[in-house]
Design goal:
- Helix content is 38%, strand content 17%.
- By secondary structure, the chain is α/β, with parallel strands linked by helices.
- The relative contact order is 0.15.
- The strands form 2 sheets. It has a 7-stranded mixed beta sheet with strand order 1-3-2-6-7-8-9, with helices on both faces.
- Pfam families: Abhydrolase_2 (PF02230).
- GO terms for molecular function: carboxylic ester hydrolase activity; palmitoyl-(protein) hydrolase activity.
- Keywords: Hydrolase.
Length: 241
C-alpha cells in the first residue's frame, strides 16, 4: 500500500527556525480543528519563534473492524475498542507511522536535524507519536502525549526492551505526558503506561491535573507543554538577548 503525503497546516515559518514540532490531532479532530482549538485555548497560535509547528491530517484509512463504517477521517489507525488492554492492530499503526516518518524526511530536506524534532499529540495522535518516537525515530528530541495510553503489551515496550538488550546505553527521547482525573480508568491506564516507560529507563514526566479535567486539552496543559518544549529545544537567540 502506497504511503500518502500527509496534508499539513503550519503555524509560522521564518528563516531562523532550528527545529520542527509535529502535533498529531486526536480522534474526531482534523489538522484544522486541532490547530483552531489550541488557538482558542491560548488566545493566540500555538507557535514558537525558533520551531516550526506542523499539524498533519490523518489519511483516510480502510476500516476492517466490524460495526464501523468503511472509512473514517480523523483516525490514525484502526481501533477495535477503547479498552487499553485491546491488542494493537500493528499493520494499521505501522501505516500511520510510515506516513509520519515520510513527513519527517520531508522536513529534514529543509535542513532540520533528527535531534531537533519533537513529535506528540492528543489521544490517538499521541499513541502514534509514541510508536514513532520509540520504535522508529529514537534519536529525535522528544515525545509528548496528551490524554493517551498504550496497551500494557504494546509493541513499543517490546521494541525498547529488545533495543536495550542489544545496546544498554541506547538513547531514547524523553517523554512528557499529561492526563486529567475525571475518568479514573483512563488515568489509571495512563499512569501504567508512564510507569512502563520509567521502568524501561525512559526519562518520563507524567503530570496529572486534579482539577476535574476530562478527555480534553486545557490552557494550563499547553503552558507547561510549551515550557517543556523550550527546554528540549532551547531558543538560543532569545537567551542571548
Amino acid at each position: 500500500m502506497a504511503i500518502p503525503n500527509l496534508k499539513c497546516l503550519i503555524t509560522r515559518e521564518n528563516l531562523h527556525q532550528v527545529g520542527t514540532l509535529i502535533f498529531l490531532h486526536g480522534e474526531k479532530y482534523t489538522a484544522e480543528s486541532m490547530k483552531k482549538y489550541l488557538k482558542f485555548l491560548l488566545h493566540r497560535e500555538f507557535e514558537f519563534a525558533h520551531i516550526r509547528v506542523v499539524f498533519p491530517q490523518a489519511p483516510e484509512i480502510p476500516y476492517r473492524v466490524p460495526l464501523v463504517e468503511a472509512k473514517r477521517t480523523g483516525l490514525w489507525y484502526e481501533q477495535i475498542s477503547y479498552s487499553p488492554t485491546t491488542a494493537e492492530r500493528k499493520e494499521s499503526i505501522n501505516y500511520a507511522c510510515s506516513a509520519i516518518r515520510q513527513l519527517v524526511n520531508k522536513e529534514k530536506s529543509r535542513g532540520i536535524e533528527h535531534e531537533k524534532f519533537i513529535i506528540g499529540g492528543f489521544d490517538m495522535g499521541a499513541t502514534i507519536a509514541m510508536h514513532v518516537g520509540y520504535r522508529f525515530l529514537t534519536d529525535i528530541a522528544g515525545v509528548f502525549a496528551l490524554s493517551s495510553t498504550l496497551c500494557p503489551k504494546s509493541i513499543v515496550f517490546e521494541k525498547i526492551r529488545r533495543d536495550r538488550v542489544l545496546d544498554k546505553n541506547k538513547r531514547f527521547p524523553p517523554l512528557w505526558m499529561w492526563h486529567g482525573d475525571v475518568e479514573p480508568n483512563r488515568l489509571r491506564w495512563a499512569a501504567h503506561s508512564a510507569e512502563c516507560f520509567t521502568d524501561l529507563e525512559i526519562e518520563t514526566d507524567f503530570m496529572v491535573n486534579f482539577a476535574r479535567q476530562g478527555h480534553e486539552i486545557i490552557p494550563a496543559e499547553l503552558f507547561y507543554l510549551k515550557k517543556w518544549i523550550e527546554k528540549i529545544i532551547p531558543n538560543h537567540e532569545k537567551s542571548e538577548t
